[in-house]
Amino acid sequence: MFITGTDTEIGKTWCTLAIIQYFKDQNLRVAGMKPIASGCHPSINGLRNSDAEQILALTQPDLAYDIVNPYPFEPPIAPHIAAKQVGQNIELNVIIRNYEQLKTQADIVIVEGFGGWRVPINANLGLKDMVLAMKTPVILVVGIRLGCINHALLTAEAIVKDGCYLIGWIANQIDIDFVGQQAIDTISEYLSAPLLAQMPYLNNLNVPTLANEIAKIGKI
């Protein structure tokens, strides 16, 4: 299952963690993956990404970090640009090999994307090529704020036109001052994919609370 979003900084990681917990609550073995990440921090073990570390800790902390996040980059910019800056090429076959390995160790694999749907991964391939190679359905996280209707409908249209299977979307309240229910209702009216959860605005991450919001509807 692949988690994408309408933009960067709209809560993909929080929603990814919530989905992982939702399946764990059903006694399923869940593996998580963040194949490509920028804005990573140096450590004694190499570059590390905080999102990938949270995913690893919630799923299978005994896995090697490099399986979960094979392409970490320090510059906090689009990954394909960061890779070019450090002289590295992102290879899709490496990502798919790791993904297939995770599939052998879990009942379900949850993969968090990066940025929005149209972000490239290298000079020739984009996010859609990764999803198509994985043959996995997509969940769209919509950051509920001004402009979210347009962003949601355009992204959903692109996902479907690219030949990927959009199984549903999550409304994630990211602007405390934006009253978003009418926007959520409008998106629901125009999208054929179901609304999977309405995430409340939270100052701090609370995975059980967010997982419960998914369980309320329970359509995944």
Q: Can you describe this structure?
A:
The protein is built from 9 helices and 8 strands. The protein is an alpha/beta fold. It has a domain at 2-28 and 87-108 and 117-217: 3-Layer(aba) Sandwich (Rossmann fold). It has a 6-stranded parallel sheet, with helices on both faces. A two-stranded parallel ribbon has the order 3-4. α1 runs parallel beside α2 (50-58) and α7 (148-161) packs parallel to α8. It starts with a strand and ends with a helix. The relative contact order is 0.19.
Name the assembly state: single chain
Separation, N- and C-terminal Cα atoms = 10 Å
State the CATH superfamily name of the domain at 2-28 and 87-108 and 117-217: P-loop containing nucleotide triphosphate hydrolases
Uncertain regions spanning at least 5 consecutive residues? none
Helix fraction, binned, reads 40-55%
The CATH architecture classification of the domain at 2-28 and 87-108 and 117-217 is: 3-Layer(aba) Sandwich
Please, what is the average pLDDT?
94
Strand order of the largest sheet: 2-5-1-6-7-8
- CATH domain class name of the domain at 2-28 and 87-108 and 117-217: Alpha Beta
Rg over C-alpha atoms, rounded to the nearest angstrom: 16 Å
Q: How many DSSP-defined strands? A: 8
**CATH-defined topology of the domain at 2-28 and 87-108 and 117-217:** Rossmann fold
Largest sheet: 6 strands, parallel
Query: In percent, how much strand structure appears in the residues?
Result: 15-25%
**Helix/sheet category:** alpha/beta
From the spread of the alpha carbons, the general shape counts as: globular
Helix count, DSSP H or I runs of 4 or more residues? 9
